[in-house]
Amino acid sequence: MRLDNNAICLAKGFKASALSCGLKKGARLDLALIYSEVPAVACGLFTRNRFAAAPVEICKKHLKGGQAQAIVVNSANANCYTGLRGLRVAGNTTGYAAKLLGLRETQVLVASTGIIGRQMDFARIKKALPKLAGSLDRKQGSKAAYAIMTTDTRPKALTKKFSAGDCVITVGAIAKGAGMIMPQMATMLCFITTDAAIEYHALKEALKEAVDGSFNAISIDGCMSTNDSVIILANGLAGNRILKAGQKDFLKFKSALKQVCGRLAAMIISDAEGATKFITIAVSGARNDTQAQKAAFSIANSNLFKAAVYGENRNLGRIVAAVGAARIEAGKQIGIQCSSLKKKSVSVKVDLRVGAGKATALTSDLTPEYVKINAGYN
Question: pTM for the whole thing?
Fold first, then answer.
């Protein structure tokens, strides 16, 4: 696995472009396009927030056919809680981009991130789309990685290659996320490209497993976003035999995807808003895995625990209280181990002593800087 800001363009047949259309102040990149030279098998996972953003609704509709070829992404405006006008903007974005690229509208997906409740200025996007479509290039993936950022301090991008028969398959991905991070799907925006030839149902299975073990295992602040999206495009240009569930090469693909998503999830926690600590919480001895996960996230989302870690205050009572608040089965005396709080990486292990269930959650500490960032976010 390799860190590479151009990761989204490293699989065969993928290009990208990015520019500033004026949604962000100054000339910062805020609009990106990811494009496959041929139609790709596509699927996605999205937020479960009841007020899901307009782009999420459009993506769900377009992905019913299991195929896509392009994704338009903007930052600085979530296009959420914007009513019918917001839906029209998202639809007009995919429609106009499709026209420029010579595609059907359903082959174009759209994603947004930024401030909720503010109407999108479609005129800016419409003006920029011709240049965006006309500047697609295999070396522009790094610009796309920057364009999707909001409060992130750095881009998150990496790639993984593996062999399938005589072919080499590449999986590349970019992600953004530093706040409003809480499971119930994917917790941020993530776009994955691969040149693997793979059946739709196999791709969907692989994505779900990868997300459950990575993006659904992290929390920064316990706040679920309205725009969370993980989308994968597989265009088949690696030339491998079509991957099907259960095959040896499919298992290799699934492993590669899990590694990519897992590393990106850890990068999100490392870049959490205002964070000074990377915290790993491992719960074992639960009645089952579901109860272990509840306990792990009860700890991960405890402001008292997170503040104590920031203050390097070894108050294990915060952990006990969080486990009790999860209202799951636990022994009268649970086991707790906590590494030094003076180091950047902190490890917490909790044994509930009632079964074999286990789960791991990643989180960060709660700092004054986090409060400062979010007090002024508008």
Answer: 0.92
